[in-house]
Amino acid sequence: MYEMKIQVRYSEVDQSGVARLHQILEYFQDCGMFQSEELGLGVEEDQKNHRAWYLIAWNVKIIRHPKMSEHITVTTQAYKMRGFYGYRRYSILDEEGEAIVLAEAIWILMDTKKMLPMKVSKEIADIYVEKDVDTTVRINRKIDDNGEWKQQESIEVTKQYLDSNNHVNNTVYALWSEDILPENVNVSEVRIDYRKAAMFKETIQVFTQQQENIFKVKYIKPDGEVAALVEMILQKQEEK
């Protein structure tokens, strides 16, 4: 288990003073990256060996959002490596050690020369995965995209959205989705199903669908392929 202790900054919160949805995912992303760096398997090492981890799915349960100035602990644990895939658990704990956000993710290891999945070596798996860890996979990856969709304003991929792999960073889909949420709602759960990387200068078509408290967003690349699907469980905000 790797831990990252931080204080929630003003720049990370919304109008109500709590960490935004995409910011929560950025906490998790940073925590995993810092662990990789500490283990000697960070970005520089991966680039040298022509490999990279691509995220293919998030499942996140938000009990409550971290608040501005709150001291929190972000944790991650790589609990399984199988074939091309790596599985991680994440959490955000409050100052009393109580979980306020829980998450699971699936990553795929890619050969960046061939742009094909590569098998996770035993050496890498042994470095990441602790002994006697719970290896039960609980994440649900695929999101159904059937039904009628409403088209929203398209998005142009600019440099600010790119990461070290030169495609749209995984947290950006949560950022884009936040902008088109219905008014006066909170997100209690979010699932993201990543299908194909969106690239610089591409125009991404955006479609939404809502059924009761389930709000979905579909992002389509210029070639017609799905870049990502986002599914959020909504709750009405409590009146102050």
Automatic annotation (TrEMBL):
Official protein name in the record: Acyl-ACP thioesterase
InterPro entries in the record: Acyl-ACP_TE_C, Acyl-ACP_thioesterase_NHD, FATA/B, HotDog_dom_sf
Keywords from the named record: Fatty acid biosynthesis, Fatty acid metabolism, Hydrolase, Lipid biosynthesis, Lipid metabolism, Transit peptide
Transmembrane segments: none
Family assignment from sequence similarity: Belongs to the acyl-ACP thioesterase family.
Domain Acyl-ACP thioesterase-like C-terminal intervals: 151-219
Family matches, as Pfam families: Acyl-ACP_TE, Acyl-ACP_TE_C
Lineage of producing organism: Bacteria, Bacillati, Bacillota, Clostridia, Lachnospirales
Residue ranges of domain Acyl-ACP thioesterase N-terminal hotdog in the record: 2-128
UniProt keyword annotation of GTP-binding present: no
